[in-house]
Structure formats: C-alpha cells, structure tokens
Amino acid sequence: MDEHLAKITISEEQMAEIDDLYPSPTENAELVFKHLRTEHPELTNWELLCFAAMYIGLVGDEYPWLKMPAMAINRLLHILHYKYPEKTSGTVGYVDETLHKDRKIKRQRNSSSDSKAIRSDGKATKRPKKRRKKPRNRRESGNRVPDRRGQSGLSEGNLARQENARRTQQRIADSDRDEKTS
Q1: Structural domain boundaries, residue 96
Q2: CA 23, CA 154: separation in Å to the nearest integer?
Q3: Which of 51, 64, 101, 179 has the most CB atoms around it within 10 Å of its CB?
Q4: Nearest to 86 by CA among 106, 113, 104, 111
Q5: Is residue 89 included in any domain, yes or no?
Q6: DSSP code, position 132
Q7: End-to-end distance of the chain based on CA atoms, in angstroms?
Q8: Span 60-88, mean pLDDT?
Q9: Domain count of the fold of the chain
Q10: CB-based contacts of 146: which residues, under 8 Å, 6+ apart?
Q11: pTM, two decimal places
C-alpha cells in the first residue's frame, strides 16, 4: 500500500477540486485542536500530542497504512517520556503551574530510586545514601550454619540422600562381614 501511495501523483488542479469539496487534513486538525483548546484548556501540548499519536494507532484497522507510522511515533513518544520526563510532563501549554508543581513534588516523593529529598519549601536536596545493613548472624550473610540437629546446614533433600548413602554403605559392610564369616 505504501508503494502504491508513493506512485500516486496529484496535480494542483486535482488538489484544488478536492479542497473545494472536502476540508484538508490541516483544516481538520486545526478544527479539532481549537475545539480541544477551548473546551479543555487544562490539556497540555504534550497530552494532545500523545492523544494524537495514540488515535492514529487506534484507527489503524480503518487505515492500515497508518499502523507502522503510528507504532514508530508511539515508540518515539515513549522514549521521550522516559528520557526527558521534565520536558514532557506538561510544562508546555496551558497548564496550571501550581497543579504541575504539586504533581512534580508528589512524583519526587513517591520515587524510591530518586536520590533527592523534598524540603517543605518544595526545593530538592540530596538524600544521603543508605548504608548497607550488616548481617546479624552467619545465616543472613549466606554462609552455612549448622542446623538444630548438629548437621552441616544441608537441605532436607541432601540430608535424605546422605542418610540413604550411609544405609547403603552399612548394608554393603554387613554383607561383606556375612561372606567372611560363612
């Protein structure tokens, strides 16, 4: 389908005829954008961009040639979201700055991997690194510890195997003794 679309050439006259009958994709996009901006001024440019990219993917069944470009755009948006979260988190556009600041502070407080602590005035300070807790006994450190019966810290399966091997050796020794006496 992409090859077919690439081969199509449209003359200026054909474009003018079509534009007289139907609004262009740019006009349609501007119409939707203006509607969303007036009805939902709290939406940021990033949120609208994410919606547009996801919508392209949602209509992929109706327009199958848009499926691959939509996947590429969505992949790019996710990369940008995780690589530059401060730029894509809604700072651009008509956004209530206090709401955005509260969201950012909550995110920083909830993030466990973040090495910054949030002071009461909203500014970030470096959080001290957690010290590794020393093990209280040898069991916590991963070393073998004798269990209650005085055995060498082996698992139950290993203990059973050891016991079976001991019994087998005892039977062999008993049978050797019986042969010598007879």
Answers
A1: 41-111
A2: 78
A3: 51
A4: 104
A5: yes
A6: P
A7: 93
A8: 86
A9: 1
A10: 152, 153
A11: 0.41
